[in-house]
Amino acid sequence: MITYNYAFFKDLFDIGWVGIKKPFFNCAQKVFQLYYEPKGLWKQHPTDPKKKFGHVDENGEWHWSNRANTNSKFCMFMYYECIGVDPKFFIDFGNPKYHNENSKRIWYYISENFEDYFEPYGKKYKKVRRIFEKSWAEGVISSIALEIALRSIYRDILKIDYSFENGDSDDMEGIDMSVFKNDGGKKTIQIKSGSFIEIYDEFIVQGAPNDLKYTTDWYAYVNVDLHLTRFIIFKNTKNLKKEDGSTRIHIPKEDVIKYGELDMKLPQLLKAIMEKCGKLDISFTITKIGDESYIEQDNESNTITINIVDSMDKEFPIELKKFLEELK
Fold this sequence. Notes:
It contains nine helices and 14 strands. The two termini are 36 Å apart. Helix 8 packs parallel to helix 9. It is α+β, with helices and mostly antiparallel strands. It is globular. The chain folds into three domains: 118 residues, no CATH class; 109 residues, no CATH class; 60 residues, no CATH class.
């Protein structure tokens, strides 16, 4: 039985559509369509310019399960599910020559056990859902941290938009955040997680092979630690350099808008709570609804929902810290 760490699966997907990502996506779409179309739950996304189809819920809303088609953590989970059944389930997994065949094998296995993984009554449903909850929550936490950084830099921001929900059409185009200024100006941003260092006349970001493929105005890399948050924001220009196959991005200093590290209580506490929920096997969700921030714990469904309406609220982190200390 061959085992791999998460970095192995992340690298396979970070290569982009030329690697395993494309066949994995295509197989996923076929299986989801086969299961959901007869139920009337396979629809075209209402605002996606690429006319993408996917699974919708009973209310016609884009379902969280659509993230399964390109999620490296889900692929890793299913890899171990499959070799747990048969250690020889795959043909030289990771070898590009067999990406198509191995993707088919994973999704055939899922199709034969679909309800176990994607129906609420399924034996593995909670585990699958929490993979995507954690992935999405990490992205939301990075966005909250970036909003705090941007508002500390610019005093003329009218509003900042980013999605707390799966399936946002802007997200499909690489737009994780839109910043609107009082003068009518707008900037779009792609947000990534990653570390960076300053060397002579440039910064080097440790990213992924398929980074820089979007046409957003800016890129931002955010690293939320439990005690400190580091960020770098830079322009999307032709000056950005990356060697073939490398994950390192070279950014000339003149293209860097702002970088730094801040003690951001809100995103750091959210990350701590998310990690605590993972250890306690509690479902964790961040929302943005209404006009009041709150923490809701439902012991019956074993879920915690944190609703945040203002990332600059100085009082809410005090509530989060108290809740974290009491969380058992």
